[in-house]
ABC transporter permease subunit (Parachitinimonas caeni), 306 residues
Amino acid sequence: MTTQTQASVQATTESVITYPSPLKEFWQGFSRNKGALLALIIVSLIILAAIFAPLVAGHDPIEQYRDKMLTPPAWAAGGLAAFPLGTDELGRDIFSRLVYGARVSLWIGLMSVLFSMIPGIVLGLFAAFYPRMLGSAIMRLMDIMLALPTILFAICIITILGPGLINTMIAIAVGTLPSYVRLTRAAAMAEINKEYVTASRVAGAGVFRLMFLTVLPNCMAPLIVNATLGFSSAVLEAAALGFLGLGVQPPTPEWGTMLASARDYITRAWWVVTMPGLTVLIAVLSINLMGDGLRDALDPKLKRAA
């Protein structure tokens, strides 16, 4: 092999660039945020505790131990190892109620996000593809819904539908719907005039194919980040509605209702109100930090800056 041929082969080899897989690239972007990694671990533990609640919790969440009412946590004076976080005013194990309450709170957050995200994406795509026919009407409706704060709007809906688990999900979902509609519309309008969409249209793709198979996949990054942050907001709003007595009703264990029943014992038994409050704080903060990590990993501008 001649020297010129060897140099040509070497130059060709050096010019070949290997790109990491999308999953590896995502993890590299996500793992740069150490707070997001810690939050991922905490959220994973909460989810696992909720899934395996019968194994993690030591007691039935609604079982009352009348002779153990307002027992302090295990590390405090008068505490019992059988009740690591103490008992409430009815003698129920706080740790078990928090673990089972994670099931309810996370389920409300998940279903609220799905109930708002799916119709929000559909309405946002229609508003982007039919700006004159449907876009104006849809966006004006969203503006009207945004005139009220989300929690106040949810309270209005709960007042009409009545308290309960399903109605809480619906109320939170309707209140957060405008954010998904506006975000989807903005992301879709930024993609509509790009070359790949024009090529698909020239190739004969129909409107629905353009919407859901061509444009939507390229709009998912901001929607995923918004859904993660919306999940934490839904958990917080569910707790707020439960605290006001408009959400999940007793004796079902839910973090907000636990706070509501404990407010009369703040001075007498600090653990009854502190434990649910800390749980809500840690869960919401961890999910928000995860959302920041997802934004760092999915936002192309942040990738280039890194």
